[in-house]
Amino acid sequence: MRKAILFSVALGMISYQGFALDRHVDWRSSSALKTEVPKMFEEQSTIRGVVRDANGPLAGVTVSVIGKSISVQTDANGAFSIEAATGDRLRFTSLGHAQQEVTVTSGTVNVTLQAEDTALDEVIVTAMGITREKKGLGYAVQDLGSEELMKNKTANIVNSLAGKIAGVNVTQTSGGAGAGASIILRGGTSLERDNQPLFVVDGVIYDNSTSVNGNSLFDGGSSTNSTYSNRVMDINPEDIENVSVLKGPAAAALYGSRAAAGVVLITTKSGKEGTASVSVNSRMISNWANRLPEYQNRYKRGFYQQDGTLMEGDATTTMGSWGAKFGPNDVMYDNMGDFFQSSTSWDNSVSVSGGSKNGNFYLSASDFRQNGIIPGTEYEKTTVRFNGQQNYGILKVGANVAYSSADQLSSLTSGGLYGHGGAGAVQGAFIWPRDMNMSHWLNEDGSKYRPFDWEQVANDFDNPYWIMNKMPRTDNTKRLTGSFKASVDIADWWDIHYTVGIDRYTQKTNRFTEPGSGVNQIYQNGLLSENDTDFQYLSSNLMTNFKKKFGDFDMNLLVGTMAEMTDVEYNGRKAWNFIIPGFYAYTNTTLTDRAAAQQRTQKRMVGVYGEYRASYRDFAYVTVTGRNDWTSTLPIHNRSYFYPSVSGSFIFSEFIPENNILSFGKVRASWARVGKDASPYVTNTYVVTPAEYTLYNNGAGVGVRNDWLRGNRELLPEITESQEYGLDVNLFGSKLGLEFTYYKNRSINQLMQPRTSQATGYILMWTNAGEIVNNGLELSAKVSPIKKEDFRWDLTLNASRNKGRVENLLPGLDVLYVTDVQVGNAKAASFNGGNFMAISGSKWLRSPEGHLVLNPQSGMPQSDGLVTHEIGNREPKLFGGLNNNFQYKNWNLSFLLDYRIGGHVYNGTDYYMTAMGMSTRSMDREKLTLTGVVKTGENADKTPIYSDVQTFEYETGKMYQIGNQTRSGEDVINSYYQSGGAYNLESANYMTDTNWLRLRTISLAYSLPKTTLSKVKAIKGLTATVTGTNLLVWTNYKGMDPETSAAGSGAIGSSSVGIDYNGVPATAGVTFGLNVTF
């Protein structure tokens, strides 16, 4: 790391020296010493005229006399009058039109301005960092500049993409400090692999995994999580110049196996030629929970027994709120409202940049400090970056180096913090009874306050404040990324580029459990756990480019080779049963009260690639690519695989006479195949040391055993084949731009690990089986309803629809589960012949006519015996965003509306609150009416015979004979809603086909006018902003924010998006920002 930093400083000095040398002025020949005597007696006269465009007279055009401080604007009829002399030159400028200059030769000057067609000139960053004209692309690519990204700046750049790019589905997993976000492009391509796109920063692949250190069976942790960071958060958003999203395989094919799910290209800032500038940014952010669960305020803690006896107060050991009603003198605590607090965060950064014609540099530093809405949760990030480039004739060299340090305090799991038997911090806050003061968590002597005198401390429901204060968990990630680039322009038709890159980070997770916590019995005397992950990625990329023009043809040939190596090492250790109380160290335990684990994975890949591009007279374009990879993760006879692509575009507007409607039109099409290799070591079968045995055997070792997962030496790479067709048009003088895309992706040879026969000695086995088919539509529209010199309104609409289905799984495999997030009987799943992002669950038994089949004794609904019904689809029917931007002189107002139509969300939080008597749906306990049929017999073919529709009623205060039991109405009604009760056998009771429209961001900015800044020479620019985030959410969903993912920001398989289960509530907030440029 020291060598990298020294190299960066040295290169920066070189760049600065080059910059300084170029500023040397030869005053002997400087034009600054030359003077020109103006003409003193020019004859002035009034010049009149009309300015038009293709649509008629043009209002708001600025007409100025070059060299003089005289300017006017055209009126509503396009007319103007200005004082000028014969020979003067008039300049006509209007937003959306090409600037024009005219020499005055008479008293009348009429001008027709031509619309600026951005589609003809727009360039965009594509694969391998190559800049191309967008009009020549045969596939869909969208990009965002730094100005647009910073309008809703977030610590996580992924969140800044939400609603702004068609086909990009972003999920902010929770409102926790440092919480991650997931991003999916055009649906998933893998059933059991990561479906997030590849991130490439300045030409180097950038890891965006969500590491869940210490969250495993090894250290007793829970594998469900909602607040871990995804690693792209390590980037300082202020350093980003541009983000290009390559959505389809045709766009991303050159990047190889890791690009099957698309690519997000991030280009960081560089210095500009001219005087060095300093930019200072400071923001203060205030956040609060935007939506909390609704809970009942009618019933207290306790429960009714079968005979109607009420157990409450000291007589009960339950957390459930199934007791008596609150009386007028009872105290009701707002435990949830008090637990989730308002928080304040600070974000400060500074950058220095400059350059000359032979070099440039950019240096930045940032500090972000976020306090969470849960007390005791924090996230801090510090970054430093240096980018530099220097030109030496035909040779260009450059380096980009970035260092970051991120600290997260008390990262939270979804379904119980750290996976212990009691409630987690968030979970506990949701179900803590209203008649118990949750802030009372310590006794006067500092010991744990235990509201229930259970025999086993392990059965305690830990108070959320106890968890946050006595069971701390920290995550620290230090990261260094860098690249060195060199290019040689051998001739005007031949150049060579070489890039070597590194991405290295260490993540350390420390966890401590206070003695007496409600955890597994083995940890009752405390637990200390440390988990370290060392990640390193190295890459080398050499490519050469040939370009030549033959008459009307432009041709370009690119060939290259790329080598990659990934090395990940994990080390975990823990200790428990400390000999000396209060001294928590590994040396303070016996050998049998310690455990350790180690794992290392390495992967190498080498690829060769090529791209051929040709165009004819700038209206017909074709691109052909091919890449072959050799990977170390597949069997020797299958580790080499080739995948091609072809794309083309045709600008048909070149053959349509000029008109006032169509100014640009293009059709495009592409076809591509992209491979995806396996994870390391899945071809072999291993023996392992079973750490799980150690947990329940007082730490005693047990040797080794066969792994439960069998390898496969016949595995093939996954292959995604894509077709894409599109239409791009600009209408009405480029005031309206439309991009329409249809795509179909088929991903075959799915790498998966289904159950195998136990006769093999294994539980799971790696194999190739199954397909994912995605069909989708995308629409992007850009409209400029108003374009005037002082006022402009720009509007962008993105709309997307994707339908993902699963086909051809293994025989007998009807449903596939990837995550272990299960609430009641509901679980995220993929169904053979059904939806990729489905929800599985249980259903009530119904007659052929659809009536509930009730228990003939109790009248309660019954389960049909299955928990594998496809009960919902988490994929939205339509999603996108509407982005508005208003510019009036030095004021800017922008707001983004983010919408989703359809897609089920399972409210697991409400399920748990209902089971504990805290939800509003459990509040109606006076009377229960159940209607349905009962089974009265069977036909000869064993089909059931049902009665006519019957009604069962239960009321409080009454006793009922149910079978051989006498039960109170209170007991029957309450047990209907409790865990395992009949109400919870219908998983769909907690599911909503969700729609939402949210005000994702609204921002108002004011920049000081240049006339004001000219009086303060040291300041080049000053902008003040105020931004609101998630201030309004309109939705039919009754839970917390429907944008949720119970297992966090990882997107393995169909992920857990749409499963709402005890996550940290999403936040709303207001940000005050100030940017000063010197």
UniProtKB/TrEMBL annotation:
Residues 137-263 form the TonB-dependent receptor plug domain. GO terms for cellular component: cell outer membrane. Coiled coil: none annotated. Pfam families: CarbopepD_reg_2, Plug. PROSITE patterns: TONB_DEPENDENT_REC_3. Its main location: membrane. It is found in: Cell outer membrane. It is a multi-pass membrane protein. InterPro entries: Beta-barrel_TonB_sf (IPR036942), CarboxyPept-like_regulatory (IPR008969), Plug_dom (IPR012910), Plug_dom_sf (IPR037066), TonB-dep_OMP_SusC/RagA (IPR023996), TonB-dep_OMP_SusC/RagA_CS (IPR023997), TonB-dep_rcpt-like (IPR039426). Keywords: Cell outer membrane, Membrane, Transmembrane, Transmembrane beta strand, Transport. Belongs to the TonB-dependent receptor family. This is TonB-linked outer membrane protein, SusC/RagA family.
